[in-house]
Amino acid sequence: MLVALLLLANLGFFALARGWLQPYVGLSTQHEREPQRLAAQVNPESVRVRAVGAAASTPDASCIQAGPFSAGQIESIESALALALRAPTSWQRQPAEMAGDAREPQFWLRVEQPDEALRQRLQELVATLPGSQVSACAATR
What we know:
about 40% helix; alpha+beta; single chain; 2 domains
């Protein structure tokens, strides 16, 4: 009786290992046979592989924005960035939405595809100005 039970268990495992039971019970030992997972992927081309250390140090943003700044502040920040960075980098000045108590226009500085030197220099400049910040760009801007 024990031999028959062991033989039956071995035959069951053999059928499972071969994938013969997968259509009937949904079990398989072969994980590469999951085309439904590949078909269910959303935008797989947008996945970027990074080194282990780079993922923690670099935010996952292809665009950053800094602000809000007054007209005088944004001019001084733009000139400081132009002096500090040797590589030609472009940024855009965008008007910020006016708050009810704002007396002068406010601006955001938007940078597409920033390198690490620009990101760090912008962080340093913004740290000296109260109420300003550097963040990933909003999708609606």
